[in-house]
Design a protein that fits this description.
The protein is an all-alpha fold. The protein is about 75% helix and about 0% strand. Helix 3 packs across helix 8 and helix 9 runs antiparallel to helix 10. It is globular.
Length: about 350
């Protein structure tokens, strides 16, 4: 939701100062994604004997299969129905640059955002997946010292690690929180304050938001590792107490990666005039959110129909649930099943 709010209004002060400034602050969603990715990857290997090859195989197949599936749909629509050609998206060597963009390493290769500007994040998350085993071991062995080293990279005047410089610390922080079980520890400590914990967290979030905006040091995304962590803690505490919001957030979370990959096509490339025609920021946001979830549901039905997850799980070498196996068999013609065998 922060992602949609950020992209909709961070360049539109005409919708009011509150909308404009909160949209600029909402870029913290990137740090939240990175922290939770580090945390989630660490949880996925905790107490498990997962080899390096299997980890890479599982993660890269999962991310690339979804990335390429969404790109196939929306680039096809963009090129053949909307008139957004590859040549119009790149200054030169359009096909070669698009292929590089599909690897997710384009931000390391050329200084263009490519066919979809939002896909710059693929140049962050894919390298972080490749670096995860090494960062995981470093954080496990050196703990806070490793975090301090990543902090030193972050505050350096010039980026030392291209593209990843400001995202290594939040990624390592997520890993650290998982390894030490600190989310639960912090939650228990906050629980001693009762309902006051929400006030404490909201005040802390507000202070960091002001610091992020006005401080000459550690401003903008450089403080988002802390800003994002506070938002994660608040959301964790709030959803633990307010059970009614769990299910809606769970549903939204299930569509997160799809929506990240295609929402820019909806609000910017394809239906820009329609989306902004509602004038009111809340209505604009809700319309985009509704459209994105509806489109994502259609995409998920299409994936289920063609056996997308059955195929990816087979490629990953993971156990396929019986229901998925039956569904795949029912949706696949007999001659195709024989050829696959």
């Amino acid at each position: 939701m922060l992602l949609l709010w950020h992209h909709l209004f961070y360049q539109h002060p005409e919708f009011g100062l509150v909308t404009f400034h909160t949209a600029r602050l909402a870029k913290v969603c990137v740090a939240i994604f990175v922290i939770l990715s580090g945390y989630g990857f660490s949880e996925s290997v905790k107490h498990k004997n997962v080899g390096l090859f299997q980890f890479y195989k599982n993660r890269l197949i999962a991310i690339y299969s979804n990335y390429w599936f969404i790109a196939l749909i929306f680039v096809f629509i963009g090129v053949f129905f909307i008139g957004i050609t590859l040549q119009s998206a790149f200054t030169s060597h359009a096909y070669a640059k698009f292929i590089v963009q599909m690897t997710g390493f384009h931000r390391f290769v050329y200084d263009e955002y490519g066919y979809n500007a939002t896909w710059w994040y693929m140049s962050v998350i894919i390298p972080l997946i490749l670096l995860f085993p090494f960062i995981h071991d470093a954080v496990k062995k050196y703990g806070l010292f490793a975090l301090l080293c990543f902090f030193a990279l972050l505050i350096h005047e010039k980026p030392i690690v291209l593209v990843l410089n400001e995202w290594l610390l939040p990624f390592a922080l997520g890993i650290y929180l998982s390894q030490r079980n600190h989310i639960s520890t912090i939650s228990r400590w906050l629980g001693t304050f009762g309902w006051w914990r929400y006030i404490i967290l909201l005040v802390a979030i507000t202070l960091i938001a002001a610091f992020r905006t006005y401080s000459p040091l550690l401003n903008e995304t450089k403080i988002d590792w802390l800003f994002g962590l506070l938002i994660i803690l608040f959301t964790f505490e709030f959803t633990t107490t307010a059970q009614l919001v769990n299910k809606p957030l769970y549903i939204l979370g299930g569509h997160l990666f799809n929506v990240f990959l295609f929402h820019t096509f909806i609000y910017y490339y394809f239906w820009r005039e329609f989306i902004y025609s509602f004038n009111n920021p809340i209505l604009i946001f809700l319309v985009l959110l509704f459209l994105c979830i509806a489109i994502s549901k259609v995409i998920e039905y299409a994936k289920e129909f063609i056996g997308f997850y059955f195929i990816t799980k087979k490629l990953q070498g993971l156990k396929v649930p019986l229901a998925m196996e039956i569904s795949f068999q029912q949706n696949t013609p007999a001659d195709a099943r024989i050829s696959r065998r």
